[in-house]
Design brief:
Elements: H1 3-9, E1 13-16, E2 27-30, H2 34-40, E3 45-49, H3 55-63, E4 67-70, H4 78-87, E5 91-93, H5 98-109
Parallel strand pairs: 2-3, 3-4, 4-5
Antiparallel strand pairs: 1-5
Length: 114
């Protein structure tokens, strides 16, 4: 599944690097602890988090994640979005909480309608 497929089926707003919407999504990872994401996420995962700071871009870049979804109506600062553009990391935001976001992405990856 492409990142764009998820964006088209869920209430997500693309905030940075829309060219990344063609990336393949292999799964999802939900965590707000940067060290946990570094240790346990996998290449191609979409990362679900409350974090908005600049460091999320570095983590996503190092792990080659498909993108970052910031939940619960949190807004990333301009410096984070600027760095995401530079590093070619797609950041999306949603009003949904992390639990619902993860559940709906899981269903989509299983081929179910949400």
């Amino acid at each position: 599944m492409k990142l764009n497929d998820i964006v088209n089926k869920l209430p997500l707003k693309v905030n940075s690097y829309s060219d990344g919407l063609q990336k393949d999504v292999s799964g999802g990872y939900s965590s707000d602890l940067l060290s946990d994401v570094l240790a346990n996420s996998r290449e191609g995962n979409v990362w679900i988090t409350l974090q908005t700071n600049l460091n999320i871009v570095a983590v996503a870049s190092v792990k080659n994640l498909a993108g970052i979804i910031i939940v619960s109506s949190k807004k990333p600062p301009e410096e984070t979005l600027k760095k995401a553009e530079e590093e070619k990391i797609t950041i999306m935001t949603t009003s949904m909480p992390a639990f619902e976001t993860a559940g709906r992405i899981y269903q989509l990856l299983q081929g179910k309608n949400v």
